[in-house]
Amino acid sequence: METSKNYWDFVDEIIVTPVTILKEQADFLTKTTKGILVGEIVFEKKIIEEGYPKLYTNKFQPNVVFNISSPILGYTYQLMSVLYDVKENYPIQINFDNGIYEAKDEESFKKFIQECIQSDTTKKIIQNLYSQSKVFENNNQPKD
Question: What Rg do the C-alpha atoms of the chain give, in angstroms?
């Protein structure tokens, strides 16, 4: 005799989230640079303090960090972070290049991410890290 019933109406379906979009771009960076630079997505929990926008309904919110890493140099640069409410994917807050921006939906988020990736700031970071990494590519590791 069954004593319990499963009340979870869950469909095993992957939806496009801000994390999905960031992960795809991180993978493109790794592929484009042939692994010399690695795009990394780090999922953190951020404590929301007084003064944050009311779009956050929980004190603890996902904070997703987009890092650019050079395994050869042992160096990681935080390009941007994205803070959002776990109940709703949008709106989200994006921290990039010492500024805080908001995207209201998936389309505006993708447009903003494209602008960030193609910005002069990001291009300089990528070019500098890539060039420095190539110097030490053949096991000529930098000395500590």
Answer: 19
